Amino acid sequence: MIQQRANFDWMLKELADGVPGIQQIVVLSADGLRIARYGGDPDAADRVAAACAGLQSLAGAVAGEIPNSDGRMRMVIIEINGGYFYLMSAGPNAYLAVLADQTAEPGLMSNRMRDLVVRIGAHLTSPPRRNGQTV
C-alpha cells in the first residue's frame, strides 16, 4: 500500500472545506496508485485511483481524435445519479480525483481544483515506474 504524503493533507482539506458536497478527494499516479486522499474509506480511495487509470487513458484516446488537440486529457466530469465525479490532470503522471454529492456546484469545483493543481502541481508529479520497481 502507498503511504499518504502528509504535506497534502491541509491542501486537500482546504479544497473539501471550500466546496460544499465533496465526499472524497484522491491524488493518484497515472498507473492508478493512490498517492494521497482526504475523506472516505482508504480502500474506496484505492478503487477510485485504479478506475481513474483506465478513465484517463480513455479520455486521452478520445482527446487524440480532436483536431488540433495535443492528445492530453485535462479534465473529465461525470454526472451520476446522486452526484459528480471529477478527474483532472495534476502534472506529469499525476491526477486529482474528486467525488461529490449532488449539492456540489460544478463551476466552483472546477475552479477550486484548478487552483489546487496550480499550487501543488510540482509536488503531484509521479515519475513512471520501471519494470520491477515498487512504490
TrEMBL record:
Boundaries of every Roadblock/LAMTOR2 domain copy: 9-100
SMART domains: Robl_LC7 (SM00960)
PANTHER family with a match to the protein in the record: SERINE PROTEASE INHIBITOR RV3364C
Stated name of the protein: Roadblock/LC7 domain-containing protein
Organism: Streptomyces lutosisoli
